[in-house]
Design a protein that fits this description.
The protein is 61% helix and 0% strand. The chain contains three helices and no strands.
Length: 56
């Protein structure tokens, strides 16, 4: 079974253990519903903040 491009992007965004742990607490908290795209966007944004990257 092959992984889609979006799946690869999500796995790449999940690579940072501290961000993934935070995502599980914040984004995927019980009672919340999120799409994979929203989760991926959140992880990427948090990674940018962590690295102090500002992209318009």
């Amino acid at each position: 079974m092959d992984l889609s491009w979006q799946g690869h992007e999500l796995l790449s965004a999940m690579r940072d253990d501290s961000l993934w742990s935070k995502a599980k607490k914040v984004v995927m908290a019980e009672g919340k519903s999120w799409t994979i795209e929203v989760l991926k966007a959140w992880l990427i944004e948090m990674a940018k903040q962590k690295l102090r990257i500002s992209v318009p």
